Amino acid sequence: MTTAPRTFRIAAIPADGVGKEVVAAGRTVLDALAAESGGAFAFEWEEFPWGCAYYERTGRMMDEDGLNRLKDFDAIYFGAVGWPTVPDHISLWGLRLKICQSFDQWANVRPVHFLPGVVSPLRKADDTELDWVVVRENSEGEYAGLGGRNLGGRGPGGEVAVQSALFTEVGCERIMRFAFDLARTRGRRKVSSVTKSNAQQYGMVLWDDVFKRVAADYPDVETESVLVDAMSAKFVLRPEDLSVVVASNLNADILSDLGSALAGSLGLAASANLNPERRFPSMFEPVHGSAPDIAGQGLANPIGAVGSAALMLEHFGLPDQAARLNKAIEATTAAGILTRDVGGTAATEDVTKALIDALTI
Ligand code: GGG
């Protein structure tokens, strides 16, 4: 008896700038992987033309019924949002954050992974392998969208704006349990919690309290609580001491960019915005933005997008296929087929072709 191939329905949203190039590259690599699988699985794609150009035509970053159209897909494969003609807070809130928050993708997983053949300021002479994961609380914190401008009516030159952060016990607890469960799957069972709770005396003190309470349920996992300034220094000076780093929305966003830059380039960094309960689709995207300075020139690094596709395959329950993609990435960088951001001369399509060739090795 032959079984029908499992078909995964994926919504592709390339959005802006290099997002278009890296999503196209990722789709090509994923389709090649499916073709290689001998019919074991397949992908069915639908592409949505949303983003800043769409906003300029329609006044919206996505269709009015966009969330409804996305909700039944198995996953969303996203590129990057932002373009100089649209204010960044409008494009970000109108698309990426709207999807993350509406679909309760409360866990943003951002591995910091060092690849062979990529020069990193952190690689030691003995070529120590480094890798850690930043777990970003992705639903509240500094991204709660609470506040307002022109409060108190102080008039021209006297404007006042308030931006509040929201921390809930439920939100803190679920992201911490996620981080602890993840730590249990790794060689080093350790969770580092990051705040600025010496200065942010309400929400981040709640975060610290919840962290202590949750940690008591995981006696086999080492813990530390570190202020974000000290953690930035630790990323640079003692990265071998890290395994899982859990932080609020803003702190984790900044730390994960630092981590990817230390690993060689933002262009290499993958991420997953997960709705762990699977009530809504999760979204997979490279950490980098739309890079208007190189957009449309075929220079973008597709590895962050392809690494994000590997995270999507893990989410689909295909860990062997995810491992194949990750091995192809390592074979490609080890062979020196690198885009400009990591010191090479290869174009996006050269790296894409090398990744596909490496799938068959
Ligand atoms: N692919 C990630 C992306 O498009 N990022 C754009 C951005 O500005 N993100 C800021 C944020 O989400 O905090």
Give the mean pLDDT: 95
Q: How many strands, what sense, and barrel or not for the largest sheet? A: 10 strands, mixed
Question: How many discrete domains?
Answer: 2
Number of strands: 12
CATH fold topology of the largest domain: Isopropylmalate Dehydrogenase
What's the oligomerization state? single chain
Unreliable stretches covering 5 or more consecutive residues:
none
- Name of the CATH class of the largest domain: Alpha Beta
CATH superfamily of the largest domain: Isopropylmalate Dehydrogenase
Over the alpha carbons, how many angstroms does the gyration radius reach? Answer: 21 Å
Q: What is the end-to-end distance?
A: 30 Å
Shape: globular
Q: Which ligands appear in the coordinates?
A: glycylglycylglycine
Order of helices and strands: EHEHHEHEEEEHEHEHEHEEHHH
Explain what you see.
With 361 residues, the protein is an alpha/beta fold. It folds into two domains: 1-110 and 270-361, Isopropylmalate Dehydrogenase (3-Layer(aba) Sandwich); 121-262, Isopropylmalate Dehydrogenase (3-Layer(aba) Sandwich). It is built from eleven helices and twelve strands. It has helices spanning 18-36, 52-58, 66-70, 88-102, 169-183, 203-215, 228-237, 249-262, 303-315, 319-334, 348-359, and strands spanning 6-15, 41-47, 75-80, 107-113, 131-137, 141-149, 161-166, 190-195, 222-227, 244-247, 270-274, 282-286. The strands form two sheets. The protein has a ten-stranded mixed beta sheet, sandwiched between helices. Strand 11 and strand 12 form a beta hairpin. Helix 1 packs across helix 9, helix 5 (169-183) crosses helix 6 (203-215) and helix 7 runs parallel beside helix 8. The longest helix has 19 residues, at 18-36. It is globular, with a radius of gyration of 21 Å. The model has no long low-confidence stretch (mean pLDDT 95). The structure holds glycylglycylglycine (GGG). Glycylglycylglycine binds at residues 80-82, 92, 96, 253, 285-289.
